[in-house]
Amino acid sequence: MKFSWRMLLLWAVPLLLIGALLLPSFMNTQQTPGPTTNTVANSTKQYSEFVADIQAGRVEEVSIAENGRVAYAKIREPNLADRATNFRINLIPLDWENLNKLLYDRKVNVQVQANNNNGQIFTLLSNILLPLLLLGGLFLLLRRSNGGGPGQAMNFGKSKARFQMDAKTGIKFDDVAGIDEAKEELQEVVQFLKKPERFTAVGAKIPKGVLLVGPPGTGKTLLAKAIAGEAGVPFFSISGSEFVEMFVGVGASRVRDLFKKAKENAPCIIFIDEIDAVGRQRGAGIGGGNDEREQTLNQLLVEMDGFEGNSGIIIIAATNRPDVLDAALLRPGRFDRQITVDRPDRAGRLEVLKVHARGKKLDPSIDLEQIARRTPGFSGADLANLLNEAAILAARRRLDYITLKEIDDAVDRVVAGLERSPLLDGKKKRLIAYHEVGHALVGTLTQDHDDVQKVTIIPRGRAGGLTWFTPSEDQLLISRNELTARITGALGGRAAEEVVFGGDEITTGASGDFQQVTSMARAMVTRFGMSNLGPVSLESEGGEVFLGGAMMRSQGYSEEVAFHIDEQVRQIVNQCYADAINLLTEHRDLMDTIVDRLIEEETIDGEDLRKMVAEATKLPNKIKLALPLATKTPA
Ligand code: ADP
Ligand code: ZN
Fold first, then answer.
1. Chain segment 314-341, per-residue pLDDT in tens
2. Using DSSP, how many helices (H) and how many strands (E) does the chain show?
3. Quick one: which atom of ligand 1 is closest to the CA of 381?
4. Domain 36-114, what fold?
5. Would you say the pTM of this structure is higher than 0.85?
6. What's the CATH number of domain 346-415, 2.40.170.20, 3.40.50.2300, 1.20.272.10, 1.10.8.60?
7. For residue 407, how far is its CA from the centre of ligand 2 (angstroms)?
């Protein structure tokens, strides 16, 4: 059984939110007119940091420029006391779809900068002028390179040194927490750098490249810096996206420059972030390969082969898509060591929290353990951000210490977005209350469902109301009953709407629930072997990263099987929905009581809810749902 961070992400984090009643996006678009983000930036950021910032809700607005190749973003920078700062980020066009979705999900205000705004005359002029200029430039370049010796024409790649050098990173292994296995494996690399003789004396070949594999924000950059810090060697870093330039050959020349500089400063660490931006399989994608990327990749391979392992340069690269990397990169003598850097488990999260609590004044009664328990699926960066948000809240509330309240608020904020002001009383508020209580009540009544932590009708992010669940543990194994209970609970919102207001009055608010329900039910059928189709794996986890790959890969099963998959998914969902309707119809009075109280108090604690349910039902209050496995064998 292989369970990875993706599993956690799939099941744990959305679970917290399973009850979110989404308001339709047209109701609360936060677009403000007119460009506010300047296209001036004080500093640059790497793409992965940018993505982490968006996920952490630090990005205030984004302005896309240069045909989607560059973004200027206003980001609240934790290192700068959360001051909003303008950054320039080189985007990865191939990842555009993901970014777009993320920006949309996080409701970041996005503007697209027109490349020119001087009207059509300018366009026309530039249409004529540009080719002329290009031709002229080419002519000049050719003449210069003829006269001034070979290679001169390509020097424009060199003038823009895009890599950063850090003579002393100042980061130690102590600063990295919760990813002990990765840390242990990398301890050895420090020894390679410090005492290469010890290894070469016995004929050992020192590895040249280490590939760190893991989702953004798990501390890959931090680890690489820690190695440099521990070994006391300089740290060179560049992002894969910065290799990929408009002009063919620029990327390759940057690679050459980088390695030249590194050799002059050996021993040292070269860190290549997002190596997948250059290292994707050659010849993949629509419309053939990208010449520039291939040249850059080839140059990288040449450089890696061109030095001996004991020359004291160790290359560390980071990616979260090792599957798309060109096989040549992973051959022995290149990135032949792969180290997985996963999101931390509960114990790991506790360690990370301890590291980041160091410089902060926490109320001594705060139990970090409890926070670790509340944050399954959080990466190291999420946790760092969480404590920082809490510190800001404490400062805003003029407290001397950060208390549990600030931390709780910060968790809510990181997971579900900013709190908005409550709705005025009215039909809509009632409907939201019924929807949320539907989730909470089904969740409380059914066995195998995670406990309700609280239910609230204070809107937050895109959600009009939320039901929070406490996931029991870091869940590595989830039973069929638990999945069924979750699906039923997630359908509880819509079920309540239908039971109370009737089929004509149901709303769009359940769309988010349905997405989760469908992906859970589909996974039950296609990945976990929990349906009539039997114990087979029909799909693998995770989506395709780039369009070309998705289009080229065939489904791996026939139309007929696809039909049965759909049928099974629908069967599971319908059965669960019927269960939810029955449960809520049966407990209609109880539901009304809870809704009245929720409308009055706006938030009900899980404990109180359980008490209300226990008093009303007077039974050992859990009901076991049964999803019959052999409902109907596909014909
Ligand atoms: P990645 O390179 O994997 O995207 P980073 O190393 O850039 O992630 O992490 C961003 C920040 O998050 C770090 O600077 C650090 O403050 C925090 N962080 C992430 N992982 C850890 C960890 N394992 N231990 C401590 N801090 C972490
Ligand atoms: Zn819902």
1. 899 999 888 888 888 888 888 888 899 9
2. 24, 15
3. 12
4. 3.30.720
5. no
6. 1.10.8.60
7. 25
